[in-house]
Give the backbone structure.
Amino acid sequence: MHIAGWSSLVARWAQHMDTKLKADIAEFAVIQALLRRGFSVLKPIGDRLPYDLAVDVNGKLLRIQVKSAWYYNGNYTVDTRRTKTNRRRMVRSRYSKSDFDLAIVYIDKLDTFYVMPVSVFSSYKSGIALVEENKRQRKPMSAMYKERWDLLSRQ
């Protein structure tokens, strides 16, 4: 079913979507992807922990940090830092390797996931470029983590 003007309405809405809403959409997309792959997913209450989800893999809990990518200068980008805000200021800090086990980055527009070990994710200083277009350039290291759901079973 096609509704006239629908795609432009969605595009305008997506441009103005706030960061928290974008994060919520990414989190639920990751939950759905994990459930469809047969994983049991746990969701902590609140947002005080350095991870967003936990996944039960053969009796071991893996802590998952979910991030949403945005389109900037011809590439998708994700911030590798945590952001804490209160009414007066926003503070960004880097994750440590003990904060979570895997990061799952979601590109909403493409319904694409990148699954990365914390050691890879936290090795980036502030951002990761995710090149989704065929360009005449060498693929970034992040390309090897596209749709790498098998990494959950290897932890």
The chain has a mean pLDDT of 85. Residues 19-152 form a domain with the Trna Endonuclease; Chain: A, domain 1 fold (CATH 3.40.1350.10). The longest helix spans residues 19-36. The helical segments are 6-15, 19-36, 118-121.
